[in-house]
Amino acid sequence: MIRIEDVIDKVQVNRPGADIDLIRRAYLFSALHHRGQKRASGEPYLVHPLEVAEILADMRLDEVSVSTGLLHDVVEDTLVDLETIRSYFGDEITVLVDGLTKIANISDLSREKQQAENVRKMVLAMITDVRVVLIKLADRLHNMRTMQYLKPEKRKRISQETLDIYAPIAHRLGMGRMRSELEDLSFQNLYPEDYKRLAKEVDVRRPELEAALIKIEATIREKLNENDVPFVKVEGRVKRLYSLWKKLKKQKIMIEQVYDLIAARIITPNDRKYCYLAMSVVHDVWTPVPERFKDWIAIPRDNLYQSLHTSVIGDGGQPFEVQIRTEEMHHIAEEGVAAHWKYKEKALGPKDEDENLDALRKTVEKLLLPLVENTEQHEDSEDFVETLKLDLYPKDVYTFTPMGKVIQLPRGSTPIDFAYAIHSGVGDTCTGAKINGRIVPLRSELQNGDVVEIMTTQSSHPSGDWLNYAITSKARSRIRHWISQEQRTESIDIGRKLLEKEAEKYKVPNKKFMSNEAELKRIANEYGLSRPDDLFASVGYGKTLPRNVLTKFLGADKIKELEPEGKKETRLKSATKAVKKFIGMDDAIVVKGVDNLLINRAKCCNPLRGEEIIGYISLDKGIVVHNRRCKNVSQLMVNKDRIVEVEWAKSDKEHVQSVQLLATTENRTGMLAGITNAIADIKTGIRDARANVSRDDIGMIEVTVEVFDKKHLDKVVGAIEHVPGVIAVERLNA
Ligand code: MN
Q1: How far apart are CA 297 and CA 275, in angstroms?
Q2: How far, in Å, from the CA of 192 to the mean position of ligand 1?
Q3: Phi, psi for residue 349 in degrees, rounded to 5
């Protein structure tokens, strides 16, 4: 069993002059209060805080962290309270223990919510003191190492959480070693079968792989020596099981097809010029694979990682990766922010220590704050976790402004994300984008090295559509914020018009009612709202009926007396009448039971006669008709009151509509002609047709056809599908 002396020895080696007495006191306190408690393994509970303290000592953290490691579970699992901790150990340790206890104590929320909440609290606690997260990670690491004693169900739950939250945070903080171990342990417990199978497959190949590695290492050493390039170490390794497994799954390949099962690493003395020299030697011995060279020394990743990566073709024609970095860069790659922890030397006073902590905090803030920024706007917790996961896995792309400034974004980002990354004002007024000088759609995915130029117009503003392709949390929360603002303005307008209309119906003059601020405010207050605008918005959203508002103004008796004879207009009808601006009309669609309304087909899904449709009352475009399955409909459903039933008009006139289709085909000649002939054969108009070949040698043929209805379209799709060589046909913009 581990002893406190083992921990103390490590602290003394790593941090000469550390306050060992503090660690001893923390140990005694922890031992006293955890006495009699056992872990699932049957061992005394004290083993856990001791092991956590040792992990922290190995990370070369200070005596305060190590002591907190010993005390971290005392408040959560024993009767000791924070005030007692404070009286024995002072404020610094109390703040840390408190932060750790808070992270653990969120049990009444749903799981997704809990995770989101956990991360939020962790990040906020870290900003007070980064040591909280380092201790939490050490705690989690030890729990993961000793999971075999837990029930499989619990093991899986903890592993999933580790994979979703803790490993990505370790990655974000640049702690490569911590991340790898957390990932491999989670993998082993979450997918034990896959793990066993893969471990076996790698083991079978191990002798061969290791022999290859030895040869590669020897060649590198020999060539570096020959060329007088100094190096500290050359090492080879077999790819980690978890990253190998992810690769196999993602690319749907077999282990035989993985070319980078092995990799070599060169560690040079602390001067980056040796890295570039070493690289030129490597490129001299083996041929580099084009486009696989990455210079993360010139452009460090935002988690501080620095290294050169290159892939070369080995002697047997087998490519492998070589990583080259200095000793210092290597230390940072393994330990991340923990490596920035300077040694407390005798000459350093408490002030320097504070400055050191301060600098570290700034770094951590920069890395982690974007994760919780604007989280108040993430009312939907699941969405928050999703966004978070995306941000936590920075498979980054590096893009540039026209002035050469690097903008780092998660993979899958679009010009919208880029625009918001520059400045929210740029995002809000973005109208278009150029990538490498060419105008591109805003939904285009950015690639490494792209030079992106954002075009803006002051009067322009965000569109809800952007949510379909903005992926960074900053962009998404700004867009959502804008939409909710806009919906409110729109609802205030609609509400005001509905009330005016209602008042008119009862012949109440505007001067008495709509222009009577005091009276409107009184009614708003009755609804628990503070201002007339809030009242209008509530009416506009359909939460409050205009007639009820008027009843509050006139009184129940008076309103009955004034009730106009005959037809009582429905709320729906007056709502649509309030729509004034005429944009265009579509007489192929009617609203059930009502005539003469402004109708527009939604551009996002361009519904086709015969398809199931649904209407949404908008302020400036009348009723916008969507395909019931359009992805925007679920968003619109939030305002249920503004959804109306619509149907296709029975009409003798034949309405022609353009529909864009994409056919994926084998790459053979005559495909385009075959498809256009098939369409012409069934007497259907073609407005546009073009052919392309994708990178993986698949033909992509886009045709725009003119059809009357869904049945007609189905016929066209069927005809194209029958052309030899066609793999699939799909409809675009639907
Ligand atoms: Mn613990």
Answers
A1: 9
A2: 24
A3: -90, 175
Q: Which pLDDT score, from 0 to 100, does residue 373 have?
A: 54
Instruction: Find the Cα–Cα–Cα–Cα dihedral 666, 672, 675, 681, rounded to 10°.
Output: -160
Average pLDDT, integer, range 14-24: 91
The Å distance, Cα 93 to ligand 1 centre, comes to 16
At 371 the pLDDT is 59
Assess contact for 588 and 649: CB atoms under 8 A.
yes
How confident is residue 687, by pLDDT bands cut at 50, 70 and 90? confident
Please say if the pLDDT value at position 384 is more than 60.
no
The chain-wide mean pLDDT, for the chain, equals 81
**d(C-alpha 400, C-alpha 635), whole Å:** 33
Q: Tokens 């620095």 identify what position?
A: 306
**CA 72 to centroid of ligand 1, rounded, Å:** 6
**Residues belonging to the chain:** 734
For residue 96, how far is its CA from the centre of ligand 1 (angstroms)? Answer: 13
Catalytic residue among 19, 43, 51, 77: 77
What pLDDT does residue 282 have?
93
Which of 76, 260, 327, 383 is an active site residue?
A: 76
Helices (H), 72-110: 74-77, 82-104
User: Mapping DSSP to helix (H, G, I), strand (E, B) and coil, where does residue 239 land?
Assistant: coil
Q: Is residue 77 flagged as an active site residue? A: yes
76 counts as catalytic: yes
Q: Which of 146-155, 449-458, 661-670, 689-698 has the lowest mean pLDDT?
A: 689-698
69 burial level (CB within 10 Å; 0-12, 13-18, 19+): buried
pTM attached to this predicted model: 0.54
What stretches of 41-81 show up as alpha helix (H) in DSSP?
47-58, 63-71, 74-77
Q: How far is CA 90 from CA 7, 164, 234, 344, 664, in A?
A: 22, 34, 46, 20, 69
Q: Would strands 599-601 and 623-627 be described as parallel, antiparallel, or unpaired?
A: parallel
Residue 388 CA to ligand 1 center (angstroms) comes to 25
CA dist 246 to 168, 242, 261, 406, 412, Å?
Answer: 15, 6, 13, 29, 18
